[in-house]
Specification:
The protein is mainly alpha-helical. It contains 4 helices and no strands. The longest helix has 25 residues.
């Protein structure tokens, strides 16, 4: 029996797994904030979210590519 079949049939297992994942993410976030700057961690989370959005729709990727190509010459000055 695969994991998704077991989760679909057992809500308690799904809730426990979601809670464990949430605690693990919270502890990882807290450790990153403790070892680095909170601004860097927040920027990394925004970048991960933006990359997920860009990868989900090719149109957003095209807009990002055009924006980077337009702003790149100004960054080198």
């Amino acid at each position: 029996m695969q994991l998704d079949e077991r989760l679909a049939g057992n809500q308690t297992l799904a809730i426990v797994l979601a809670l464990c994942l949430g605690v693990a993410l919270a502890l990882g976030f807290a450790a990153l904030v403790a070892f680095t700057s909170p601004i860097i961690v927040i920027a990394a989370m925004v970048a991960l979210g933006a990359s997920a959005i860009i990868l989900s729709n090719i149109e957003y990727g095209l807009y990002t590519l055009i924006g980077i190509a337009a702003l790149l010459p100004f960054a080198s000055v």
